[in-house]
Amino acid sequence: MDPESAPQSPSAANARPDHDAVAAAIERRLQAEREKAAAAAQSSMFDGKHEKRQEFRRMIDPGILRPNPRPLALEALQVQLLFNSLQLGDHPGEVKYQKFKPTNASIKRLLVDPRGTLEYAVALGFHPQVENFQPYYVFNQRYMEDLKIGAAMIKEALERELVKEEREQRRRAEEKAAHEAAVAKVKQAFYDDRKGRAMVDERERTVRAAAAANPNRSSASPAPSTIADYRPKRRMPGSGQTLSGEVIDVDADDDEGHEDADAALHSEDDG
């Protein structure tokens, strides 16, 4: 009996996976994950911080990224705003992280002069004060939650923009390499052409110099050196008929002509 045609036991039949059941289980798991993600998004929108996050996002783009040179905007976000926010969030009790002096050269270049950067610092909770007749921006502890949200939005923007910047730098590097390769190819072709022309000019100069050194040899026709050179050129072999009906054998005529020419040359040599 064929083993494949033999009836299977109930235990073997139950062991076979039900593809419909597996597909249904996968679909249920995917649906649960989708519902979980949607619930998380819905919760984030109604947690009381969604509007604040959106406000900080708008202050970064278009507020800071668009009106400023891109390298300056990224440096301001990465070096100054993010540094101050994270350090202050990690060390809320340290006074040195709770204020900055707007007249400092680095602070002025990265935090005061660019458009939108000082406004962002104010939104984080830094407000202007005068201490010992010196201007400062001092952080108010009541805005700690805003500071954390603002710092998170800076991190989010930097992760996105730095990836774009890296991609753009790679594209510019590839374009530069392609341009340099094309320029090198054109230069090599130019050098090869000049080298070829120089070789041709050198050969022509050599020929002219040889002709100038022996003008008689260049103008005279070369003299024959062997008996074969005196022999007239043979015509095409074969036979034919003239208009008068006379039959001409070219091979016979040529052989007789060559024999006569050879005899004449030998007689001259004997004489």
TrEMBL record:
Residue ranges of the region described as Disordered: 1-21, 33-52, 207-271
Basic and acidic residues bias: start-end ranges: 260-271
Bias (Polar residues) ranges: 1-12
Biased composition regions of type Acidic residues, renumbered to the chain: 248-259
CDD domains, sorted: PUB
Biased composition (Low complexity): 208-225
Listed InterPro entries: PUB-like_dom_sf (IPR036339)
Record protein name field: PUB domain-containing protein
Source organism per UniProt: Trametes cubensis
Organism ancestry: Eukaryota, Fungi, Dikarya, Basidiomycota, Agaricomycotina
